[in-house]
Structure formats: structure tokens, C-alpha cells
Design a protein that fits this description.
The protein contains 3 helices and 6 strands; from the N terminus they run H-E-H-E-H-E-E-E-E. The protein has a single domain, classed as RRM (RNA recognition motif) domain (Alpha-Beta Plaits, 2-Layer Sandwich), CATH 3.30.70.330. The protein has a 4-stranded antiparallel sheet with strand order 1-2-6-3. The model has no long low-confidence stretch (mean pLDDT about 90). It is globular, with a radius of gyration of 15 Å. Strand 4 and strand 5 form a beta hairpin. With about 100 residues, the chain is of the alpha+beta class. Belongs to the universal ribosomal protein uL23 family. One of the early assembly proteins it binds 23S rRNA. One of the proteins that surrounds the polypeptide exit tunnel on the outside of the ribosome. Forms the main docking site for trigger factor binding to the ribosome. InterPro entries: Nucleotide-bd_a/b_plait_sf (IPR012677), Ribosomal_uL23-like (IPR013025), Ribosomal_uL23/eL15/eS24_sf (IPR012678). This is Large ribosomal subunit protein uL23.
């Protein structure tokens, strides 16, 4: 996998209450990922970018909601998220302040 593809796979962390609970209890991190990414690509991208050991990746497609605006109804885009389980002793800290 080339370097460009690695940066296109991971779009960013997904921060929510459920993501925080899974991080505390199961040593998992939740990412927004590209819709065409598969589990092997996600695992390789996380291991290469953050230098951690990944044990498991679970993905799910999130359906876009239908929202009302001044023009009528509009549909938000579909997106994909990945629950990445890290090995014991590994951690990703997104709140690093220099």
C-alpha cells in the first residue's frame, strides 16, 4: 500500500459518548474511514501512522440522515466508521499538546 492511500483511508477520529465508553472498557479507538476501505487496509494504516499493534478491526456503514432545510429535504452523505482494537499496552492519544 502506498503512502497516499494510507492518508486517504483514515479521515479522522470519531468522538462520541459510545466511542469514549469503548475506549475505556475495550481499549478501542473509533475512526471515520473511506467508504471503499477494507479491514486489512484500515489495520495497516493505523499501525503505520500511529506505530501501535492492532488486534481487530470492525467496520460499519452509517446511513446518512434526511434533514430539512430551507430548500426542502436534503440527504446527508453515507459514511463508514471503524472500531479498531489495540493490543494490550498500546494507546493512541489524540489530545497531545506541545
Amino acid at each position: 500500500m502506498n503512502a497516499e492511500r494510507i492518508y486517504k483511508i483514515l479521515k479522522g477520529p470519531h468522538i462520541s459518548e459510545k466511542a469514549a465508553m469503548s475506549a475505556d472498557s475495550g481499549n478501542q479507538v473509533v475512526f471515520k474511514v473511506a467508504t471503499d476501505a477494507n479491514k486489512l487496509e484500515i489495520k495497516a494504516a493505523v499501525e503505520k501512522l500511529f506505530k501501535v499493534k492492532v488486534t481487530d478491526v470492525r467496520t460499519l456503514n452509517v446511513k446518512g440522515k434526511v434533514k430539512r432545510n430551507r430548500f426542502g429535504l436534503a440527504k446527508k452523505p453515507n459514511w463508514k466508521k471503524a472500531y479498531v482494537s489495540l493490543a494490550q499496552g498500546h494507546d493512541i492519544d489524540f489530545a497531545v499538546v506541545e
